[in-house]
Design brief:
Chain lengths: 354, 354
DNA sequence: TGTTAGCACTCAACTAATATGAGTGCTAAC
DNA sequence: GTTAGCACTCATATTAGTTGAGTGCTAACA
């Protein structure tokens, strides 16, 4: 027992590392338990299957491999993947065309920021062929650039709040074009260049006082409008979350079971799950949660790799890739690295500091 | 043969209708071939299984039923469903609470029209538990209410086009706040209350002439801005399409086969498919396409039920439900009927004619 | 003439028995 | 330390046999 424990903590020698790497590489491709013969043949280690078998037995004892049953090959354990991700994984170089295309698609004829982020999620899913989750920028530092009221019918007015993006909502109220303009002017004077967290209920009360007497609006209407302004401003902080390419889950053999797939789909449909999920990941660089490192029961057989994107060196949103534990980590890491850097660049650009 | 053909065109007597209805009702619930004994027992027709068997044989001969194999029960054919939908189906009454909730959710704290429509799709999927496809209003008659230019950083300006909804895009260009305002004023004077199809390239040229000399902007910048204005206005016509609750597909036994499900997911992911699909449906009232009535290969085992929603009696968008052929048509028809009427009401309201 | 009981027949789906073969661990020889 | 060889294991595939739901047809009955 003492001996066993020693072994468990012993460092892997180079040959063991090579073999473990070969097994995981193999398994990532095949999703089938890997046998000693396959390794001995396909990977040129110059070792017989018997030798590999011995090493595999050791690796299993150390907790890096699992044997589903006596007469099957080996499958990486969570610890095996973890070791692979930390120490074994080869750098993956994305093709130049892929990088070029990415740049184009992200910055090209790109509309609004929300969409840039959504698009980044889409691109990550295209690059990796896994499902992606992306959270739109958290907006504590987002300044209000403009507020506007536009009558869109006789009985309704559209409230616009322009920050780095636009939010809009319809307010059911009768308000003439002129009164809208007058109201908007005051709102702008008071709200422009403020950030969402600077605007309190008091700010709104001030505005109310300002308006009363200066503009002739029914109190009921005014309260209605200001109510929505406040609500909309408060909502600026709401993190939007987008899921892209959920269907890719169905293509991996570990989810041939429809019920399992359905569980994940339901999980991905619930934004509150996703917000929690994505908020629980590391805040620096690229981060992987493998199998049981995920808190959520449903993701025990998945890995989640996330990256932060930032502005002025401060993380403001995350992009994550969800796939089977045997995902192609090297490729995913490379893709996320690239995309996050491109988003950073883009945000820098639009924020006017660049 | 002559006799057979006669039979095929013969009208169904009441008893046959009752039996066919019983079979389809049964099959909609179970997804398993329906046997004569089950009908004889569960539905109080006062007939023995032998009699039912005889009738079933007739119904099969007439093309309304199919026997998957000799020793199985009967399954409705496409023609069977068609007859059911046209003549047999019972009116379905949605619960009062469901209707109330729908009204609340649709009109309550509802933001913008795009979202109302998306929400309607969501509600339809919640009401029926099938996948829904909904196309946002086609905008030929949408008037431009306001155009605005807002600087959002030192190097970028946001272009806003407000119609019944808002579209926005970022233009990378240096433009001071004052110049933005001046430009916006001219754009508004020229574009307000025009519909997208009224604005041609000439309109834009006019505006260009107007601006040159009056406002001091670099020609390059001006051309850039006007280019985007034109492009954005042209894009107003783009039909947006939303799919809701695609995952519901996985819950029906006809899609236990992951590959089949995946096909459909891919199909639903491709907006061009959906646009074609939804444009090929009837333009009045509620419309069903059953099985092979769908042009698309992939939907041969599905039914698609659509309804138009309209403004001033003119259809401007569609809402569709996609599910297995044995879908609960009565429920789907009732749900779509209700929702489309509610949307009509809502649009009427916001358009200011109501 | 329409209805039904009864019976022989069919065939998908389940079960059990058997074969296959990929892969292992262990031993003994190199 | 490495490896050939062999006995052993066990998931998977194959086959044969059984079951039972459901049918069509016939003959008797109201």
């Amino acid at each position: 027992m003492a001996y066993e424990r020693m072994r468990t903590h012993m460092d892997l020698n180079d040959r063991k590392k090579l073999i473990l790497q070969a097994i995981i590489d193999e398994y990532i491709g095949s999703a089938e338990p890997v046998g000693s013969r396959a390794i001995s043949k396909k990977h040129e280690l110059g070792l017989s299957s018997a030798t590999i078998r011995n090493e595999m037995a050791d690796l299993e004892e150390m907790g890096y491999l699992i044997q589903p049953h006596t007469s099957a090959g080996r499958v990486p354990s969570d610890a095996g993947y973890r070791f692979y991700v930390n120490s074994l994984m080869k750098r993956y170089q994305l093709g130049v065309e892929a990088i070029e295309r990415l740049r184009d698609e992200l910055s090209g004829r790109l509309g609004i920021l929300d969409k840039a982020v959504k698009r980044a999620g889409y691109l990550a899913s295209a690059l990796t062929d896994y499902t992606t989750v992306v959270s739109a920028p958290v907006s504590e530092r987002v300044e209000i650039k403009k507020v506007d009221l536009v009558p869109v019918s006789e009985e309704s007015v559209m409230l616009l709040i322009v920050t780095r993006t636009v939010r809009s909502r319809i307010i059911k109220t009768r308000l003439s074009f002129e009164k809208c303009e007058a109201l908007a002017a005051i709102l702008n004077a008071k709200l422009r260049d403020k950030t969402a967290d600077e605007i309190t209920f008091n700010t709104i009360s001030d505005i109310e006082q300002e308006i009363i007497g200066r503009i002739d609006v029914e109190p009921k209407v005014l309260i209605n409008v200001l109510h929505f302004v406040y609500e909309s401003v408060s909502e600026l902080d709401d993190t939007e979350i987008y899921v892209e390419n959920a269907k890719s889950i169905l293509q991996y053999p570990e989810y041939r079971d429809v019920d399992k797939a359905r569980e994940i789909f339901s999980f991905l449909d619930d934004k509150s799950n996703l917000k929690r999920l994505i908020s629980e990941t590391g805040n620096e660089g690229i981060n992987a949660k493998i199998g049981d490192e995920n808190d959520s029961e449903i993701l025990q057989d998945c890995s989640l790799v996330t990256v932060n994107y930032s502005l002025d060196g401060k993380a403001i949103g995350k992009l994550g890739v969800i796939g089977p534990k045997r995902m192609d980590y090297a490729r995913v890491f490379a893709s996320l690295d690239l995309i996050s850097r491109e988003i950073d660049r883009l945000l820098e650009y639009f924020s006017g500091n660049g």
